[in-house]
Request: fold
Amino acid sequence: MLPQSLGTQPRPIYLVASDEPLLLRDWLDAARNLLREQGYEEILQQVVENVQQFDWNGLLEDGQNLSLFASRKAQILRLPGCRPGTTGARVLTELCRQPPEDTLYIVTT
Reply:
């Protein structure tokens, strides 16, 4: 079930946790469709397999940079079976405190 706010007034960041891969996939598919309808033309997905090697600062910078092709963008960050680590936690906290204006984040576990 999609959060009501995603359809009316999207929040800057969502955390979606599920032990059911099929439910998570269905939720993300529905979210992508809804976001496209709302004008999110660029929807990127990144999978974090190794939190130590992932470019967390790059994720933060990508959200702050303007897109050449879309006025609004969404980033889906998948953390399958792992925690964000110290640097990842700092970046996610920063995104929650000061989210970029035209970027929406969905973090999944």
Notes: Strands lie at 13-16, 40-47, 72-78, 103-108.
